[in-house]
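Curious: can you check?
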Amino acid sequence: MYLLRKGAVAVIKDDAVSHTLTRGAFFGEITLLFPAVRRTASVKALTECEMASLTKADLMKVAENYPDFLDMMSTVAKSHLKKDEHEQQRVAMDRSAKQQPAPKATPQQLQQRGTCARLCQCP
């Protein structure tokens, strides 16, 4: 996990900048707290940055004295995961809607439009 002490970074998802982070922000908490979860974004420096890193062992040492900190980090990570999940569902639905062919018309609908006679032998 990284704590941004100085500078600005862009958070990149699906090859587009999702948002930017500045001094005081952190990233990488999802992988630190939930190692089985695949990385959800990339981060690219926009300016010269100064960062501090926090390993899992460091986090557990902090949590011994400040258990609320670990709870807060877990809450934030879960919130980020939930946002990512909703965004992935929205993107999937958008893609699906774009790829689905137009629904086929019934013979009655075609007949009402006056095109049925050319396509079939409906009475």
The first strand starts at residue 2 and ends at 6. Residues 2-85 form a domain with the Jelly Rolls fold (CATH 2.60.120.10). The chain has five helices and six strands.
